[in-house]
Structures are given as structure tokens and as C-alpha cells.
Amino acid sequence: MIDLDVYLPEIAAGSEEAFTGWLAGAEGPLRRSLGRFAASVDTEAMLQETLLRIWQVAGRCRPDGQPNSLLRLASRIARNLALDEIRRRRVVVPGVVGGGAGGPGAGDHGADGPAVEPIDPEPPPDPILRERIRRCLERLRGAPRRALLLRIESAGGEPDGDLAARLNLRLNTFLQNVTRARRQVALCLERSGARMPS
Amino acid sequence: MSERERDALIEAALTAWRPRAPDGSILTHPAWADLSEADRARHFDETLRARSLERLLDPEGISTTARAVLARIARARES
């Protein structure tokens, strides 16, 4: 099994390079762990907040002899952030203990609260699939290509309205082109006999 | 809401960009807030696929979500 705790000492010492390595294996499973909250909270916002907090508290994470202690801590933080948001927004999530303000279990989800589900790191991307996707991306043309590449390059640094303006597109046109580009890449991948992992 | 409008909202919320509160905390995307529960589930699935694509294209194997977080950490260090 992959143990992302190999990065922990360097992350604790402030290495962004080590944190990048940890993120490569941790983001996917952490996002999937938030799936049960997807109808109630913006999981992208929850995940980013979780990752920032992990960077801040990594120095205090003490391995417990089991692999992936930092990933398990992140999973607990993500779940607790989601529960806090659900409580703040007063939405009821069926099957989620503590869902809804003042409901059963409210306030019982501290760091030592109920155990979270087991979580395993993501394996490194398949190099063959990477190459196929790169080729599919090369086949994209025109506005869909420009819109998707700009969205990826901006990496969440700017709102879509700013990106659209840079391409002289209306926001809706920009969004349609990003969607179209992603669909074309998925279709190209299917034609090559592969599928986009999720 | 038409299907095209729903698709646009889902795509808008697929970005890794998120607004920030004055205290620096990360807020819900306005487009996500306008989605129905069913469309939020669809948005979640689409996000999984979009981030997988980004990871596969990235030389270090990380998505725009991870890049956004790293950029934020770098900015905090500079200030």
C-alpha cells in the first residue's frame, strides 16, 4: 500500500515540494470522501479549505503506527468542515449524524469523534493514459481548446468572467466551450479504447 | 430552468476558483448555490472527471484544486 506519510516530515518542515507529492495522492480520495455531502455543501470549497488546514497543522500530526496518518487526519477535517457547513446552513442530510442545526449528534464531531471511513491514496496516473489524453488535447482546435487550456492554466486563480474577457468571449460562450472541449477529449479517449477515470 | 442554463451553471461551478470571505476562508461558488440537489450530484461527478483530466495533463500529477491551494500558500508566504 502507498503510504503518503513518507512526505510528512518534509511537509512539517515547510516543503511545498513534499506537499505537492502528498496532494497528488491525497486529493482524489479526499474529494470522493466528501461525495455523501455533495448535495448539501460545495465540496470544492470544503476540499480547498481542508488542504489549507492540513498544510497549517501538518507539523502537529503524529503518526500512530498505521500508514497515511496525515491523509486520515485530512479526511476527518474534511468531514467536520462539511458537517459544520451543513449545520450552519441548517440543511438536513438523511443518514448523516449531526445533519441539521441542533439535530441528533450535533456537536459530537470533534477530531476524536466517530471514526471516518477507511481512505487509501490514489495511485500515480497511468503513463499510457496520460499520453493518450495529451494527444487528444492536441487535436482540439479553436475556441474550445483556448477556453479549456486557459481554465486549466489559471488553476482557480481567476473567476471565469475574467478568463472569458481575456478571450473576448461572453461568459456563457466561454463556459460552453470549456464543456465542449472536455466532451471532445472524453470522446477522443473513448475512440482510442480508454476511458476517463473518475 | 432550461437544460442549457443548467449545464452552464454546472460548468461555472466546475472551476477551482472560489470566492473568499474577508477572513480568508473559502466560500461556496455562487453558481453551485443555484443548483438543484440533483444537479449538485451531477456537478460532483463532473468535478471528479474534470480533476482526473487535469491530473493526467499536469507534469506533477495534481489538479487545479491542488494548484489553487499551493498558490494560496505561496502568496501567504510572500506577504
Can you characterise this structure?
The complex is a heterodimer of chains A (198) and B (79). Chain A has helices spanning 8-12, 16-33, 43-57, 69-89, 127-139, 142-154, 160-166, 171-191. Chain A has 198 residues and is mainly alpha-helical. Chain A has two domains: 1-119, no CATH class; 123-193, Arc Repressor Mutant, subunit A (Orthogonal Bundle), CATH 1.10.10. In chain A, helix 5 packs across helix 8. Chain A is globular. Chain A starts with 7 loop residues before the first helix and ends in a 7-residue tail after the last helix. In chain A, 36% of the residues are buried. The model of chain A is unreliable at 98-114 (pLDDT under 50). With 79 residues, chain B is mainly α. Chain B has helices at residues 3-14, 30-33, 37-57, 64-78. Chain B is flat. The termini of chain B are far apart. The mean pLDDT of chain B is 95. At the A-B interface, helix 2, helix 3, helix 5, helix 6 and helix 8 of A face helix 1, helix 3 and helix 4 of B.
Task: Summarize this structure as a short list of keywords or feature phrases.
heterodimer, A: 198 residues, mainly alpha, Arc Repressor Mutant, subunit A, 2 domains, 8 helices, globular, B: 79 residues
